[in-house]
């Protein structure tokens, strides 16, 4: 199986910065698109940012210019740098990876989620 282990997150004041990381490990042959989603209470999970192995990126309009997604293909790790955070960014952030396993199955995998709280 493939595991996604997230780190980072926490409590930050409005205007502050946080960094998230997510490492894929286990029976992984190749990681394809990787990304971050978030979910706040009462809302559906929404896309934050995506990145391809070639580092082509996609961002939600609400985070453009403030968040930066990047990845290290050698480490199967994706990062999210979040600057100028706003209270509305408060949510549980989930890492996602589409990956081919050593059994040649291509599946979507999710991390366990990490809480980001923006509050004064």
Question: Topology of this structure?
Answer:
Layout: E1 2-8, E2 10-12, E3 18-26, E4 28-39, E5 46-51, E6 57-59, E7 67-72, E8 77-82, E9 91-101, E10 106-110, E11 114-118
Parallel strand pairs: 2-11
Antiparallel strand pairs: 1-3, 3-8, 4-5, 4-9, 5-6, 7-8, 9-10, 9-11
Structure summary, number of beta strands: 11
Largest sheet: 7 strands, mixed
SS-based class: mainly beta
In what range is the share of β-strand residues? over 45%
- Order of SSEs, N→C? EEEEEEEEEEE
Please give the radius of gyration in angstroms: 14 Å
Distance between the termini: 40 Å
User: Please, what is the average pLDDT?
Assistant: 96
Contiguous helical run count: 0
The parts where pLDDT drops under 50 for at least 5 residues are none
What share of residues is helical? under 10%
- Gross morphology: elongated
Detailed description of the structure:
It is a single chain. The protein has 120 residues and is mainly β. The protein has strands at 2-8, 10-12, 18-26, 28-39, 46-51, 57-59, 67-72, 77-82, 91-101, 106-110, 114-118. Strands 2, 4, 5, 6, 9, 10 and 11 form a seven-stranded mixed β-sheet that branches. A four-stranded antiparallel β-sheet has the order 1-3-8-7, with no helix packed on it. A hairpin with a 5-residue loop joins β5 and β6. The chain is elongated and about 45 Å long.
